[in-house]
Specification:
14 helices, 8-stranded parallel sheet, 8 strands, 51% helix, alpha/beta
Length: 340
């Protein structure tokens, strides 16, 4: 009974009319999703985080309306901790792979170009990319925004940590001074506007401004930074690692605009149901490491079974399903389509 209720709730959360995003650039699609949630027209945006082409495809194939390219995930997939060992160019390359995964899944979801095409326009779900600290000074921040925009990212997160930054839920964090943090966010917002001036309305990636100062400088400083980030022009804010429900509520009450809740399992922030987060005032519920952590756990268990000489069938998909998930089914149809 409990499983049935949870499944029904999940289906209801995903059953959002996305017709308002047909034919729009990714940032405009994301903007419309945010407005629909803030107005109460749609439920909170559930945002499982991806880090490569296959995780992007899985999120899109599962029916979610948006995703986030996590720097922790990209770093982990490259064999590194999330301590900014991965460079700007490597992150842009990862964003390109994510964008390809989202696009291919969108075409497959509606059987675009196939005899049984549904007639529904394909829509690649929007993705926010992790811009870390912007990889340098304010000018580097602007270049980062442009780099992600060219890959098709709908938004970019910029944060106020000292470089090299690290995961927001580990020890050793430090943040830049208040005024410098605001200027960093302003540079990102200016780059968004400049990109849009060059390439048209709705093309500039939305800016998600994050602060990590709660742990280093206290809750009030973190709130004031979020307020200042909004005044500087950011589209969304992200107060990292609130430790109590009371802090989460106060953040939502005092800071305007769309807000992201970071639902990191075993992290420092209380994990709350999506409906409760939306009632507080959150617009997005991000799940940053669920896919990475789940895959690590399953791989570790599978490796142990192989080491013990035991079968792994309970841990894996049938080969036909694996082929379908990575795109073999669509590839075969495309091959037939262009045969002479």
């Amino acid at each position: 009974m409990l499983y049935t209720k949870l499944l029904s709730a999940a289906v209801a959360l995903l059953a959002i009319d996305t017709s308002y995003s047909f034919g729009f650039p990714p940032p405009e699609r994301l903007s419309r999703l945010l407005k629909a949630t803030d107005s109460g027209e749609a439920p909170i945006i559930l945002m499982p985080c991806c880090y490569d082409g296959i995780t992007a495809r899985l999120v899109a194939q599962s029916g979610f309306n948006a995703t986030f390219m996590t720097g922790f995930g990209v770093s982990g997939a490259n064999g590194y901790p999330d301590t900014q060992l991965v460079s700007f160019n490597e992150m842009v390359l990862a964003a390109s792979k994510v964008a390809e995964g989202l696009s291919s899944a969108a075409l497959e979801n509606v059987k675009f170009g196939e005899p049984d095409y549904t007639g529904q326009p394909p829509v690649a779900i929007p993705c926010i990319a992790d811009g870390d600290t912007g990889y340098g000074n304010a000018i580097n921040v602007k270049r980062t925004v442009f780099g992600y925009a060219r890959t098709g990212m709908a938004g970019m997160m910029i944060e106020d940590q000292v470089a090299p930054k690290r995961c927001g839920h580990v020890a050793g964090k430090a943040v830049i001074p208040f005024d410098e943090a605001v200027q960093r966010v302003k540079a990102a917002c200016d780059a968004r506007d400049e990109y849009e001036a060059l390439f048209g309305k709705g093309t500039g990636p939305l800016i998600l401004a994050r602060t990590d100062s709660l742990v280093t400088d206290g809750f009030e400083d973190a709130i004031q930074r979020c307020i200042a980030f909004r005044e500087a022009g950011c589209d969304m804010t992200f107060l990292e690692a609130p430790q109590t429900i009371e802090q989460m509520k106060e953040y939502c009450q005092r800071v305007t605009g769309p807000k992201l809740a970071n639902m990191l399992e075993y992290g420092n922030t209380p994990i709350l149901p999506p409906s409760e987060l939306q009632e507080m005032g959150y617009t997005i519920a991000a799940y940053p490491l669920t896919l990475l952590s789940a895959s690590i756990k399953t791989m570790q268990e599978s490796l142990q079974l192989i080491k013990e000489g035991k079968p792994t069938l309970d841990k894996i998909l049938p080969f036909a399903e694996t082929k379908d998930v990575v795109g073999f089914t669509k590839y075969a149809k495309e091959e037939d389509r262009y045969k002479c």
